[in-house]
Amino acid sequence: MRKITFKKKLFTTLCSLFVGLIFCSAQEMMYEIPLSNQVSNSNQIVEGKVISKNSFWDLNHQNIYTVNIVEVYKVFKGQALTTLQIITEGGVVDMTAQITTLSLELAVGDIGVFMLHDSNVRFYDDITFSNKFESYSAIQGFYKYDLQENRVSNPYLSVDGIGDNFYPKVTSQTQSDFIVMSSFDIDNHIRNHSFNRLGGLVITDFSPSSITGGTRSILTINGAGFGATMGNVLFRDANSGGSTYFTSLDSQIISWSDTQILVEVPSRAGTGTFRVVNSGGGFNNSGNPVVIPYSEINVTTSSDIAYPTQHVDDNGNGGYTWSMNVTFFLNNDANQSFTRAFDTWRCETGINWDLDPSFTTINTIALDNTNIIRFDNSTELPAGVLGRNTSYFSGCSGGTEWYISELDIVFDSGTNWQYGPGAPTSSQIDFETVAVHELGHGHQLAHVIDPNAIMHYAVGSGVSNRVLSTNDILGGNDVQDRSTTTPVCFRGLMTDHSCSLGINESELQNLVSIYPNPAKNEIFIRNDYHVSIDKIEMYDITGRVVKVSRLENSNSLHSLNVSELSNGVYLVNIDIEGKVLTKKIVIE
Fold first, then answer.
1. Is residue 509 located within the same domain as residue 469?
2. pTM, whole model, 2 decimals?
3. What whole-number distance in Å separates Cα of residue 442 and Cα of residue 388?
4. Rounded Cα distance, 146 and 134, in Å
Protein backbone atom coordinates (compact mmCIF):
# COMPACT_ATOMS: atom_id res chain seq x y z
CA MET A 1 0.00 0.00 0.00
CA ARG A 2 1.23 3.49 -0.81
CA LYS A 3 1.95 5.91 1.96
CA ILE A 4 -0.58 8.21 3.59
CA THR A 5 0.91 11.28 5.23
CA PHE A 6 -0.90 13.42 7.76
CA LYS A 7 -0.15 17.12 7.42
CA LYS A 8 -1.55 20.25 8.93
CA LYS A 9 -4.53 21.56 6.97
CA LEU A 10 -4.22 25.09 5.67
CA PHE A 11 -7.79 25.19 4.40
CA THR A 12 -10.30 27.18 6.47
CA THR A 13 -13.83 28.14 5.51
CA LEU A 14 -17.18 28.80 7.09
CA CYS A 15 -19.62 25.96 6.75
CA SER A 16 -23.02 25.13 8.19
CA LEU A 17 -24.78 21.81 8.38
CA PHE A 18 -28.31 21.50 7.03
CA VAL A 19 -30.26 18.22 6.79
CA GLY A 20 -27.07 16.24 6.67
CA LEU A 21 -25.57 18.17 3.74
CA ILE A 22 -22.50 20.40 3.97
CA PHE A 23 -22.94 23.86 2.47
CA CYS A 24 -19.97 26.23 2.33
CA SER A 25 -19.60 29.93 1.74
CA ALA A 26 -16.74 29.68 -0.72
CA GLN A 27 -15.87 29.51 -4.38
CA GLU A 28 -15.48 26.51 -6.65
CA MET A 29 -12.44 26.59 -8.91
CA MET A 30 -14.32 29.59 -10.24
CA TYR A 31 -15.80 32.80 -8.90
CA GLU A 32 -19.46 33.73 -8.69
CA ILE A 33 -21.18 35.44 -11.60
CA PRO A 34 -24.33 37.05 -10.14
CA LEU A 35 -27.71 36.52 -11.78
CA SER A 36 -27.78 40.16 -12.87
CA ASN A 37 -24.49 39.77 -14.77
CA GLN A 38 -25.64 36.52 -16.33
CA VAL A 39 -28.83 38.11 -17.61
CA SER A 40 -27.06 41.16 -19.04
CA ASN A 41 -24.39 39.05 -20.79
CA SER A 42 -26.79 36.44 -22.22
CA ASN A 43 -28.58 37.04 -25.50
CA GLN A 44 -30.89 34.04 -25.06
CA ILE A 45 -32.50 32.95 -21.78
CA VAL A 46 -34.95 30.07 -21.83
CA GLU A 47 -36.71 27.61 -19.60
CA GLY A 48 -36.59 24.17 -21.16
CA LYS A 49 -35.92 20.46 -21.01
CA VAL A 50 -33.06 18.46 -22.53
CA ILE A 51 -34.74 15.94 -24.86
CA SER A 52 -31.69 14.43 -26.61
CA LYS A 53 -27.93 14.74 -26.91
CA ASN A 54 -25.14 13.60 -29.21
CA SER A 55 -21.38 14.23 -29.41
CA PHE A 56 -19.24 15.35 -32.35
CA TRP A 57 -15.69 16.38 -33.21
CA ASP A 58 -15.03 20.04 -33.89
CA LEU A 59 -13.96 21.25 -37.33
CA ASN A 60 -10.24 20.60 -36.78
CA HIS A 61 -10.76 17.26 -35.04
CA GLN A 62 -9.14 18.64 -31.87
CA ASN A 63 -11.94 18.65 -29.32
CA ILE A 64 -15.25 16.87 -28.74
CA TYR A 65 -18.46 18.78 -28.08
CA THR A 66 -21.93 17.56 -27.13
CA VAL A 67 -25.00 18.99 -28.82
CA ASN A 68 -27.91 19.04 -26.34
CA ILE A 69 -31.31 19.59 -27.96
CA VAL A 70 -33.60 21.53 -25.64
CA GLU A 71 -37.37 21.81 -25.91
CA VAL A 72 -38.18 25.40 -24.97
CA TYR A 73 -40.99 26.07 -22.50
CA LYS A 74 -40.52 29.81 -21.93
CA VAL A 75 -38.34 32.55 -23.39
CA PHE A 76 -37.17 35.18 -20.91
CA LYS A 77 -34.85 36.92 -23.36
CA GLY A 78 -33.99 36.54 -27.03
CA GLN A 79 -35.64 34.78 -29.97
CA ALA A 80 -39.00 33.03 -29.65
CA LEU A 81 -37.66 29.53 -30.34
CA THR A 82 -39.42 26.21 -29.76
CA THR A 83 -36.16 24.24 -29.71
CA LEU A 84 -32.50 25.12 -29.59
CA GLN A 85 -29.11 23.45 -29.32
CA ILE A 86 -26.83 23.96 -26.32
CA ILE A 87 -23.19 23.11 -27.06
CA THR A 88 -21.20 21.74 -24.12
CA GLU A 89 -17.54 20.71 -23.99
CA GLY A 90 -16.68 17.03 -23.85
CA GLY A 91 -18.36 13.80 -24.83
CA VAL A 92 -17.67 10.44 -26.46
CA VAL A 93 -17.18 9.78 -30.19
CA ASP A 94 -16.42 6.18 -31.10
CA MET A 95 -13.38 5.17 -29.01
CA THR A 96 -12.33 8.69 -27.98
CA ALA A 97 -13.71 10.55 -24.98
CA GLN A 98 -13.14 13.99 -23.50
CA ILE A 99 -14.02 15.35 -20.06
CA THR A 100 -13.44 19.02 -19.26
CA THR A 101 -13.86 19.99 -15.62
CA LEU A 102 -16.12 22.93 -14.89
CA SER A 103 -17.90 22.58 -18.21
CA LEU A 104 -21.66 22.16 -18.14
CA GLU A 105 -22.72 18.50 -18.36
CA LEU A 106 -26.40 17.94 -19.08
CA ALA A 107 -28.52 14.80 -18.92
CA VAL A 108 -31.60 13.97 -20.94
CA GLY A 109 -34.56 15.02 -18.79
CA ASP A 110 -32.81 17.96 -17.09
CA ILE A 111 -35.20 20.90 -16.72
CA GLY A 112 -34.36 24.46 -15.77
CA VAL A 113 -33.43 27.92 -16.96
CA PHE A 114 -30.44 28.34 -19.28
CA MET A 115 -28.39 31.54 -19.56
CA LEU A 116 -27.00 31.40 -23.10
CA HIS A 117 -24.88 33.20 -25.67
CA ASP A 118 -24.17 32.39 -29.31
CA SER A 119 -21.79 29.52 -30.00
CA ASN A 120 -19.11 29.75 -32.68
CA VAL A 121 -18.12 26.07 -32.49
CA ARG A 122 -17.88 24.52 -35.94
CA PHE A 123 -18.17 20.78 -36.42
CA TYR A 124 -16.27 18.14 -38.34
CA ASP A 125 -17.55 16.87 -41.70
CA ASP A 126 -19.53 20.12 -42.19
CA ILE A 127 -22.19 19.13 -39.67
CA THR A 128 -24.26 22.27 -39.04
CA PHE A 129 -26.79 23.20 -36.39
CA SER A 130 -29.17 26.13 -36.26
CA ASN A 131 -30.07 28.04 -33.09
CA LYS A 132 -26.73 27.08 -31.54
CA PHE A 133 -25.79 28.43 -28.10
CA GLU A 134 -23.42 27.90 -25.19
CA SER A 135 -24.00 28.37 -21.49
CA TYR A 136 -22.81 31.74 -20.24
CA SER A 137 -20.53 31.19 -17.19
CA ALA A 138 -20.32 27.39 -17.70
CA ILE A 139 -22.08 25.38 -14.98
CA GLN A 140 -23.28 28.58 -13.30
CA GLY A 141 -25.41 29.33 -16.35
CA PHE A 142 -27.84 26.45 -15.73
CA TYR A 143 -30.45 26.87 -12.99
CA LYS A 144 -31.64 23.32 -12.47
CA TYR A 145 -35.15 22.54 -11.27
CA ASP A 146 -35.92 20.21 -8.37
CA LEU A 147 -39.62 19.63 -9.07
CA GLN A 148 -40.07 17.45 -5.99
CA GLU A 149 -38.91 20.23 -3.65
CA ASN A 150 -40.04 23.20 -5.81
CA ARG A 151 -36.49 24.55 -5.80
CA VAL A 152 -34.14 25.91 -8.47
CA SER A 153 -30.36 25.99 -7.99
CA ASN A 154 -26.99 26.62 -9.53
CA PRO A 155 -23.71 26.26 -7.55
CA TYR A 156 -24.18 29.66 -5.89
CA LEU A 157 -27.91 30.37 -5.70
CA SER A 158 -30.86 28.28 -4.50
CA VAL A 159 -34.39 29.66 -4.60
CA ASP A 160 -37.45 27.98 -3.10
CA GLY A 161 -40.54 28.55 -5.20
CA ILE A 162 -39.72 28.32 -8.91
CA GLY A 163 -42.77 30.14 -10.25
CA ASP A 164 -43.43 32.37 -7.27
CA ASN A 165 -39.89 33.54 -6.55
CA PHE A 166 -37.41 32.60 -9.28
CA TYR A 167 -39.40 33.76 -12.30
CA PRO A 168 -39.71 37.28 -10.81
CA LYS A 169 -35.96 37.35 -10.11
CA VAL A 170 -35.27 36.78 -13.80
CA THR A 171 -37.98 39.05 -15.20
CA SER A 172 -36.90 41.86 -12.86
CA GLN A 173 -33.51 41.70 -14.59
CA THR A 174 -34.85 41.36 -18.16
CA GLN A 175 -37.49 44.02 -17.40
CA SER A 176 -40.03 42.14 -19.46
CA ASP A 177 -42.36 39.20 -19.03
CA PHE A 178 -41.51 35.79 -20.44
CA ILE A 179 -43.00 34.34 -23.63
CA VAL A 180 -44.78 30.99 -23.26
CA MET A 181 -43.69 28.51 -25.94
CA SER A 182 -45.33 25.25 -24.69
CA SER A 183 -48.03 23.92 -22.42
CA PHE A 184 -45.54 23.20 -19.61
CA ASP A 185 -47.05 24.62 -16.39
CA ILE A 186 -44.64 24.73 -13.49
CA ASP A 187 -47.41 25.02 -10.88
CA ASN A 188 -49.15 21.85 -12.10
CA HIS A 189 -45.86 19.96 -12.09
CA ILE A 190 -45.06 21.15 -8.58
CA ARG A 191 -48.51 20.16 -7.30
CA ASN A 192 -48.24 16.71 -8.87
CA HIS A 193 -44.79 16.08 -7.42
CA SER A 194 -45.74 17.46 -4.01
CA PHE A 195 -48.77 15.16 -3.93
CA ASN A 196 -46.39 12.24 -4.43
CA ARG A 197 -44.05 13.44 -1.68
CA LEU A 198 -44.08 10.05 0.03
CA GLY A 199 -46.47 7.80 -1.83
CA GLY A 200 -45.86 5.15 0.84
CA LEU A 201 -42.09 5.22 0.19
CA VAL A 202 -39.90 4.92 3.28
CA ILE A 203 -36.10 4.63 3.58
CA THR A 204 -35.32 2.78 6.81
CA ASP A 205 -31.52 2.43 6.52
CA PHE A 206 -28.63 2.05 4.11
CA SER A 207 -25.14 0.57 4.15
CA PRO A 208 -22.31 1.22 4.17
CA SER A 209 -22.52 4.69 5.70
CA SER A 210 -19.27 5.68 3.95
CA ILE A 211 -18.68 4.67 0.33
CA THR A 212 -16.64 5.88 -2.65
CA GLY A 213 -18.05 7.26 -5.92
CA GLY A 214 -17.17 6.19 -9.44
CA THR A 215 -15.50 3.00 -8.19
CA ARG A 216 -18.45 0.67 -8.80
CA SER A 217 -19.00 0.42 -5.07
CA ILE A 218 -22.54 -0.70 -4.21
CA LEU A 219 -24.84 1.05 -1.75
CA THR A 220 -27.64 -1.06 -0.25
CA ILE A 221 -30.84 0.86 0.53
CA ASN A 222 -33.56 -0.77 2.64
CA GLY A 223 -37.12 0.39 3.13
CA ALA A 224 -40.64 -0.01 1.78
CA GLY A 225 -42.74 1.29 -1.08
CA PHE A 226 -39.95 1.27 -3.63
CA GLY A 227 -42.24 -0.68 -5.98
CA ALA A 228 -41.55 -3.66 -8.19
CA THR A 229 -40.60 -1.50 -11.18
CA MET A 230 -37.25 0.29 -11.19
CA GLY A 231 -37.26 3.98 -10.36
CA ASN A 232 -34.34 6.33 -9.67
CA VAL A 233 -31.76 6.99 -6.96
CA LEU A 234 -30.50 10.57 -6.80
CA PHE A 235 -27.33 11.70 -4.99
CA ARG A 236 -26.19 15.18 -4.07
CA ASP A 237 -24.21 16.50 -7.04
CA ALA A 238 -20.62 17.21 -5.98
CA ASN A 239 -20.18 19.49 -9.02
CA SER A 240 -22.69 21.93 -7.57
CA GLY A 241 -21.66 21.45 -3.94
CA GLY A 242 -24.80 19.45 -3.30
CA SER A 243 -27.29 22.20 -4.14
CA THR A 244 -28.70 19.94 -6.87
CA TYR A 245 -29.18 16.19 -7.30
CA PHE A 246 -27.48 13.89 -9.79
CA THR A 247 -29.48 10.88 -11.03
CA SER A 248 -27.82 7.46 -11.18
CA LEU A 249 -27.71 5.80 -14.56
CA ASP A 250 -30.14 2.95 -15.16
CA SER A 251 -27.11 0.71 -15.64
CA GLN A 252 -25.97 1.59 -12.12
CA ILE A 253 -29.11 0.13 -10.55
CA ILE A 254 -27.93 -3.40 -9.78
CA SER A 255 -31.24 -4.61 -8.37
CA TRP A 256 -34.61 -3.12 -7.35
CA SER A 257 -37.40 -4.57 -5.26
CA ASP A 258 -40.16 -3.12 -3.12
CA THR A 259 -37.97 -3.29 -0.01
CA GLN A 260 -34.36 -3.10 -1.20
CA ILE A 261 -32.25 -1.30 -3.81
CA LEU A 262 -28.64 -2.00 -4.76
CA VAL A 263 -27.02 0.90 -6.62
CA GLU A 264 -23.52 1.74 -7.78
CA VAL A 265 -22.55 5.17 -6.44
CA PRO A 266 -21.93 7.46 -9.46
CA SER A 267 -18.85 9.57 -10.03
CA ARG A 268 -20.61 12.89 -9.35
CA ALA A 269 -22.16 11.77 -6.07
CA GLY A 270 -21.17 13.83 -3.03
CA THR A 271 -21.62 13.59 0.72
CA GLY A 272 -25.20 14.34 1.79
CA THR A 273 -28.69 12.96 1.87
CA PHE A 274 -29.87 11.01 -1.15
CA ARG A 275 -33.32 10.53 -2.69
CA VAL A 276 -35.28 7.50 -3.91
CA VAL A 277 -38.02 8.03 -6.51
CA ASN A 278 -40.29 5.11 -7.42
CA SER A 279 -41.84 4.51 -10.83
CA GLY A 280 -45.11 6.10 -9.70
CA GLY A 281 -43.44 9.37 -8.74
CA GLY A 282 -43.40 8.72 -4.99
CA PHE A 283 -40.18 9.86 -3.38
CA ASN A 284 -38.39 10.38 -0.11
CA ASN A 285 -34.98 11.51 1.11
CA SER A 286 -32.71 9.59 3.42
CA GLY A 287 -32.75 10.76 7.01
CA ASN A 288 -28.97 10.63 7.32
CA PRO A 289 -26.24 11.62 4.87
CA VAL A 290 -24.13 9.08 3.05
CA VAL A 291 -20.44 9.99 3.30
CA ILE A 292 -18.41 9.87 0.07
CA PRO A 293 -14.74 10.41 0.99
CA TYR A 294 -13.46 10.40 -2.57
CA SER A 295 -14.76 9.86 -6.08
CA GLU A 296 -13.17 8.95 -9.39
CA ILE A 297 -13.84 10.17 -12.92
CA ASN A 298 -15.73 7.79 -15.21
CA VAL A 299 -16.24 7.76 -18.97
CA THR A 300 -19.95 7.38 -19.69
CA THR A 301 -20.52 5.88 -23.12
CA SER A 302 -23.41 6.58 -25.48
CA SER A 303 -25.08 3.45 -24.10
CA ASP A 304 -25.13 5.16 -20.67
CA ILE A 305 -22.66 2.83 -18.98
CA ALA A 306 -19.97 4.39 -16.77
CA TYR A 307 -16.45 2.96 -16.85
CA PRO A 308 -13.44 3.71 -14.61
CA THR A 309 -10.35 5.25 -16.21
CA GLN A 310 -6.64 4.83 -15.61
CA HIS A 311 -3.14 5.84 -16.64
CA VAL A 312 -0.68 3.98 -18.87
CA ASP A 313 2.94 4.27 -19.99
CA ASP A 314 2.49 7.09 -22.49
CA ASN A 315 6.05 8.43 -22.78
CA GLY A 316 8.03 5.19 -22.73
CA ASN A 317 9.33 6.00 -19.25
CA GLY A 318 6.37 4.65 -17.32
CA GLY A 319 4.10 7.69 -17.40
CA TYR A 320 3.32 11.07 -19.02
CA THR A 321 5.41 14.15 -19.82
CA TRP A 322 3.87 17.60 -19.38
CA SER A 323 5.09 20.76 -21.16
CA MET A 324 4.64 24.40 -20.16
CA ASN A 325 3.71 26.94 -22.81
CA VAL A 326 6.50 29.50 -23.20
CA THR A 327 4.49 32.32 -21.55
CA PHE A 328 3.69 30.17 -18.54
CA PHE A 329 7.28 28.90 -18.44
CA LEU A 330 8.66 32.44 -18.31
CA ASN A 331 6.41 33.36 -15.39
CA ASN A 332 8.78 32.17 -12.68
CA ASP A 333 6.25 32.45 -9.88
CA ALA A 334 3.60 30.46 -11.75
CA ASN A 335 6.22 27.95 -12.93
CA GLN A 336 7.51 27.29 -9.42
CA SER A 337 4.03 27.20 -7.87
CA PHE A 338 2.81 24.67 -10.41
CA THR A 339 5.95 22.57 -9.93
CA ARG A 340 5.28 22.42 -6.18
CA ALA A 341 1.70 21.27 -6.90
CA PHE A 342 3.06 18.75 -9.38
CA ASP A 343 5.44 17.28 -6.79
CA THR A 344 2.64 17.13 -4.22
CA TRP A 345 0.80 14.47 -6.24
CA ARG A 346 3.93 12.68 -7.43
CA CYS A 347 5.37 12.29 -3.96
CA GLU A 348 2.11 11.36 -2.22
CA THR A 349 0.62 8.87 -4.71
CA GLY A 350 3.51 7.88 -6.99
CA ILE A 351 1.79 9.21 -10.13
CA ASN A 352 4.49 9.02 -12.81
CA TRP A 353 4.40 12.48 -14.31
CA ASP A 354 7.45 14.30 -15.69
CA LEU A 355 7.86 18.00 -16.44
CA ASP A 356 9.65 18.85 -19.67
CA PRO A 357 12.58 21.03 -18.51
CA SER A 358 12.13 23.12 -21.65
CA PHE A 359 8.92 24.66 -22.99
CA THR A 360 6.52 24.50 -25.92
CA THR A 361 5.08 27.17 -28.19
CA ILE A 362 1.81 25.23 -28.46
CA ASN A 363 -0.90 27.47 -27.05
CA THR A 364 -4.19 25.62 -27.43
CA ILE A 365 -6.22 23.02 -25.57
CA ALA A 366 -6.53 20.25 -28.12
CA LEU A 367 -5.93 16.55 -28.65
CA ASP A 368 -2.47 17.10 -30.16
CA ASN A 369 -0.18 14.67 -28.29
CA THR A 370 1.06 17.42 -25.95
CA ASN A 371 0.12 17.53 -22.26
CA ILE A 372 0.17 21.29 -21.91
CA ILE A 373 0.14 23.77 -19.01
CA ARG A 374 -0.76 27.32 -20.00
CA PHE A 375 -2.61 30.55 -19.30
CA ASP A 376 -5.74 31.31 -21.28
CA ASN A 377 -5.96 33.77 -24.13
CA SER A 378 -8.05 36.66 -22.84
CA THR A 379 -11.70 35.48 -22.80
CA GLU A 380 -11.00 31.85 -23.69
CA LEU A 381 -12.23 30.46 -20.37
CA PRO A 382 -15.92 30.87 -19.52
CA ALA A 383 -16.83 33.72 -17.20
CA GLY A 384 -16.09 32.83 -13.60
CA VAL A 385 -13.69 29.94 -14.26
CA LEU A 386 -10.25 30.10 -12.58
CA GLY A 387 -8.73 27.01 -14.20
CA ARG A 388 -9.65 23.64 -15.58
CA ASN A 389 -8.31 20.30 -16.65
CA THR A 390 -9.22 18.52 -19.87
CA SER A 391 -8.76 14.76 -19.95
CA TYR A 392 -8.75 12.91 -23.27
CA PHE A 393 -9.32 9.15 -23.28
CA SER A 394 -8.87 6.28 -25.69
CA GLY A 395 -11.01 3.16 -25.45
CA CYS A 396 -11.00 -0.41 -26.67
CA SER A 397 -12.76 -3.73 -26.13
CA GLY A 398 -16.01 -2.28 -27.35
CA GLY A 399 -15.69 0.72 -25.05
CA THR A 400 -15.33 -1.26 -21.82
CA GLU A 401 -11.72 -0.13 -21.19
CA TRP A 402 -10.54 3.49 -21.13
CA TYR A 403 -7.14 5.08 -20.52
CA ILE A 404 -5.86 8.65 -20.47
CA SER A 405 -4.30 9.59 -23.79
CA GLU A 406 -3.67 13.28 -23.02
CA LEU A 407 -4.10 15.89 -20.26
CA ASP A 408 -4.25 19.69 -20.67
CA ILE A 409 -4.57 22.37 -17.99
CA VAL A 410 -5.36 26.06 -18.51
CA PHE A 411 -5.46 28.88 -15.92
CA ASP A 412 -7.16 32.26 -16.07
CA SER A 413 -4.61 34.93 -16.94
CA GLY A 414 -6.66 37.77 -15.43
CA THR A 415 -7.06 36.45 -11.88
CA ASN A 416 -5.38 38.19 -8.94
CA TRP A 417 -3.22 35.17 -8.10
CA GLN A 418 -1.04 34.53 -5.07
CA TYR A 419 1.64 32.19 -6.39
CA GLY A 420 3.19 31.50 -2.99
CA PRO A 421 4.95 30.25 -1.09
CA GLY A 422 3.40 33.01 1.02
CA ALA A 423 -0.28 32.91 1.95
CA PRO A 424 -2.90 34.73 -0.16
CA THR A 425 -4.47 37.94 1.01
CA SER A 426 -8.25 38.25 1.36
CA SER A 427 -8.46 39.56 -2.21
CA GLN A 428 -6.23 36.91 -3.81
CA ILE A 429 -6.84 33.40 -5.14
CA ASP A 430 -4.15 30.88 -4.20
CA PHE A 431 -2.64 29.57 -7.44
CA GLU A 432 -1.07 26.46 -5.93
CA THR A 433 -4.41 25.44 -4.43
CA VAL A 434 -6.10 25.62 -7.83
CA ALA A 435 -3.14 23.84 -9.48
CA VAL A 436 -3.24 20.96 -6.99
CA HIS A 437 -7.00 20.68 -7.52
CA GLU A 438 -6.79 20.62 -11.33
CA LEU A 439 -3.93 18.11 -11.21
CA GLY A 440 -6.23 16.01 -9.03
CA HIS A 441 -8.68 15.92 -11.94
CA GLY A 442 -5.77 14.91 -14.15
CA HIS A 443 -5.10 12.14 -11.65
CA GLN A 444 -8.74 11.12 -12.40
CA LEU A 445 -10.34 12.24 -9.15
CA ALA A 446 -13.77 13.85 -9.29
CA HIS A 447 -15.24 16.50 -6.98
CA VAL A 448 -16.24 15.78 -3.39
CA ILE A 449 -18.09 17.75 -0.74
CA ASP A 450 -15.52 17.97 2.07
CA PRO A 451 -13.81 21.26 3.07
CA ASN A 452 -10.67 19.39 4.19
CA ALA A 453 -10.14 17.72 0.80
CA ILE A 454 -8.22 19.10 -2.17
CA MET A 455 -11.01 17.81 -4.43
CA HIS A 456 -13.67 19.72 -2.50
CA TYR A 457 -15.72 21.63 -5.03
CA ALA A 458 -15.00 25.01 -3.39
CA VAL A 459 -12.17 27.30 -2.32
CA GLY A 460 -12.52 30.93 -1.32
CA SER A 461 -10.47 34.08 -1.75
CA GLY A 462 -7.68 34.29 0.81
CA VAL A 463 -7.77 30.52 1.37
CA SER A 464 -4.97 28.06 0.67
CA ASN A 465 -5.35 24.27 0.61
CA ARG A 466 -2.12 22.95 -0.85
CA VAL A 467 -1.77 19.75 1.17
CA LEU A 468 -3.53 16.50 0.28
CA SER A 469 -5.94 15.05 2.83
CA THR A 470 -6.00 11.37 3.71
CA ASN A 471 -8.94 10.83 1.37
CA ASP A 472 -7.27 12.69 -1.51
CA ILE A 473 -4.33 10.32 -1.17
CA LEU A 474 -6.54 7.24 -0.85
CA GLY A 475 -8.35 8.16 -4.06
CA GLY A 476 -5.12 8.87 -5.90
CA ASN A 477 -3.62 5.61 -4.65
CA ASP A 478 -6.63 3.66 -5.88
CA VAL A 479 -6.26 5.02 -9.41
CA GLN A 480 -2.49 4.52 -9.31
CA ASP A 481 -2.78 0.93 -8.06
CA ARG A 482 -4.85 -0.21 -11.02
CA SER A 483 -2.73 1.87 -13.41
CA THR A 484 0.38 -0.04 -12.29
CA THR A 485 -1.19 -3.51 -12.13
CA THR A 486 -4.02 -3.81 -14.69
CA PRO A 487 -3.07 -3.48 -18.37
CA VAL A 488 -5.67 -1.93 -20.70
CA CYS A 489 -5.89 -1.76 -24.48
CA PHE A 490 -2.49 -3.47 -24.89
CA ARG A 491 -0.71 -0.42 -23.44
CA GLY A 492 2.24 -0.63 -21.06
CA LEU A 493 1.64 -0.20 -17.35
CA MET A 494 2.42 3.01 -15.55
CA THR A 495 5.26 2.72 -13.04
CA ASP A 496 5.59 4.55 -9.73
CA HIS A 497 7.42 7.86 -9.53
CA SER A 498 10.27 7.65 -7.02
CA CYS A 499 9.91 11.26 -5.77
CA SER A 500 13.69 11.70 -5.96
CA LEU A 501 14.56 14.98 -7.63
CA GLY A 502 17.76 13.59 -9.11
CA ILE A 503 20.51 15.24 -11.09
CA ASN A 504 18.30 16.09 -14.04
CA GLU A 505 15.76 18.07 -12.05
CA SER A 506 17.68 19.80 -9.29
CA GLU A 507 21.47 19.64 -9.32
CA LEU A 508 21.72 20.22 -13.06
CA GLN A 509 20.28 23.70 -12.61
CA ASN A 510 23.19 24.55 -10.30
CA LEU A 511 25.86 22.70 -12.26
CA VAL A 512 25.24 24.66 -15.48
CA SER A 513 25.24 28.45 -15.37
CA ILE A 514 25.08 31.37 -17.84
CA TYR A 515 26.72 34.77 -17.30
CA PRO A 516 26.75 37.70 -17.45
CA ASN A 517 23.01 38.24 -17.10
CA PRO A 518 22.01 40.77 -18.37
CA ALA A 519 24.48 40.48 -21.26
CA LYS A 520 25.50 42.70 -24.17
CA ASN A 521 27.73 41.07 -26.78
CA GLU A 522 28.77 37.70 -25.38
CA ILE A 523 27.54 35.12 -22.92
CA PHE A 524 29.40 32.28 -21.25
CA ILE A 525 27.97 28.86 -20.43
CA ARG A 526 29.80 27.20 -17.56
CA ASN A 527 29.39 23.43 -17.27
CA ASP A 528 30.37 21.77 -13.99
CA TYR A 529 28.47 18.59 -14.90
CA HIS A 530 31.63 17.17 -16.51
CA VAL A 531 29.68 15.79 -19.47
CA SER A 532 29.79 17.34 -22.94
CA ILE A 533 27.20 19.89 -24.00
CA ASP A 534 25.90 18.82 -27.42
CA LYS A 535 23.93 21.84 -28.59
CA ILE A 536 22.81 25.28 -27.46
CA GLU A 537 19.65 26.88 -28.87
CA MET A 538 18.31 30.35 -28.15
CA TYR A 539 14.63 31.33 -28.47
CA ASP A 540 12.89 34.66 -28.24
CA ILE A 541 9.77 34.97 -26.08
CA THR A 542 7.52 33.97 -29.00
CA GLY A 543 9.34 30.62 -29.21
CA ARG A 544 11.21 31.45 -32.44
CA VAL A 545 14.71 29.96 -32.72
CA VAL A 546 17.19 32.85 -33.07
CA LYS A 547 20.54 31.09 -32.62
CA VAL A 548 21.89 27.53 -32.71
CA SER A 549 25.37 26.40 -31.71
CA ARG A 550 26.55 22.80 -31.98
CA LEU A 551 29.54 21.93 -29.79
CA GLU A 552 32.20 19.33 -30.46
CA ASN A 553 34.35 19.49 -27.35
CA SER A 554 33.93 18.83 -23.68
CA ASN A 555 35.27 22.10 -22.33
CA SER A 556 33.66 23.27 -19.14
CA LEU A 557 33.33 26.82 -20.45
CA HIS A 558 31.72 27.89 -23.74
CA SER A 559 31.20 31.35 -25.17
CA LEU A 560 28.42 32.53 -27.46
CA ASN A 561 28.33 35.76 -29.47
CA VAL A 562 24.93 37.47 -29.07
CA SER A 563 25.81 40.91 -30.40
CA GLU A 564 23.41 40.57 -33.34
CA LEU A 565 20.38 39.93 -31.11
CA SER A 566 17.90 42.66 -30.24
CA ASN A 567 17.39 43.73 -26.66
CA GLY A 568 14.93 41.54 -24.78
CA VAL A 569 14.34 38.30 -22.90
CA TYR A 570 15.58 35.01 -24.39
CA LEU A 571 15.46 31.36 -23.43
CA VAL A 572 18.58 29.24 -23.79
CA ASN A 573 18.09 25.49 -24.29
CA ILE A 574 21.18 23.45 -23.40
CA ASP A 575 21.28 19.84 -24.65
CA ILE A 576 23.45 17.83 -22.30
CA GLU A 577 23.62 14.03 -22.21
CA GLY A 578 20.09 13.57 -23.48
CA LYS A 579 18.65 16.17 -21.12
CA VAL A 580 17.44 19.66 -22.02
CA LEU A 581 18.10 22.42 -19.53
CA THR A 582 16.45 25.82 -20.05
CA LYS A 583 17.85 29.10 -18.72
CA LYS A 584 16.49 32.62 -19.11
CA ILE A 585 18.76 35.52 -20.08
CA VAL A 586 18.30 39.21 -20.83
CA ILE A 587 20.11 40.96 -23.70
CA GLU A 588 20.46 44.72 -23.33
1. no
2. 0.85
3. 10
4. 22
